[in-house]
Amino acid sequence: MTTQIRVLGPGCYRCQELYEHTTEAVAELGLDADVQKVVDLTEIARRGILATPALVVDDELVLTGQVPTTKQIEQLLSSLA
Q1: DSSP assignment, residue 29?
Q2: What total number of domains does the chain contain?
Q3: Residue from 5, 7, 8, 15 carrying the catalytic annotation
Q4: Annotation marks residue 10 as catalytic
Q5: Which candidate in 12, 27, 41, 80 is catalytic?
Q6: Mind listing the pLDDT tens digit for each residue in 33-47?
Q7: What pLDDT score was predicted for residue 14?
Q8: Range of 68's domain?
Q9: What CA–CA distance (Å, rounded) separates 29 from 14?
Q10: Residues β-bridged to residue 33
Q11: What is the CATH number of the domain that holds 12?
């Protein structure tokens, strides 16, 4: 089953950085994941996210308002598996 990973934010530098770290972590772990950026503010608000960037894995909010390193995201994703 493919894991759905969404990086939510308005497209700022921090959002792009989280997206890059996330795609690197997915590649390092060899996960079957679909990683997408969500920049639609209506969608972000619908999810109740107050601080960006945010990371959503399989519709579960796992991170908000910070940009962890690639290694930290690897640890986060492996703990969810």
Answers
A1: H
A2: 1
A3: 15
A4: no
A5: 12
A6: 999 999 999 999 999
A7: 97
A8: 3-80
A9: 22
A10: 3
A11: 3.40.30.10
Asked whether 37 and 10 are in contact (CB, 8 A), the reply is no
36: helix, coil or strand? strand
Report strand pairing: 54-57 vs 60-64: antiparallel
- Cβ-Cβ contacts under 8 Å for 13 (sequence gap 6 or more): none
Which of 55, 60, 71 minimizes the C-alpha distance to 8?
55
Active site residue 25: no
Indicate the length of the chain as a whole number. Answer: 81
Burial of 14 (0-12, 13-18, 19+ CB in 10 A): middle
pTM beyond cutoff 0.90: yes
DSSP 8-state symbol, 30: T
SS3 65: coil
* Whole-number CA gyration radius for the chain: 12
The one-letter code for the residue type at 49 is I
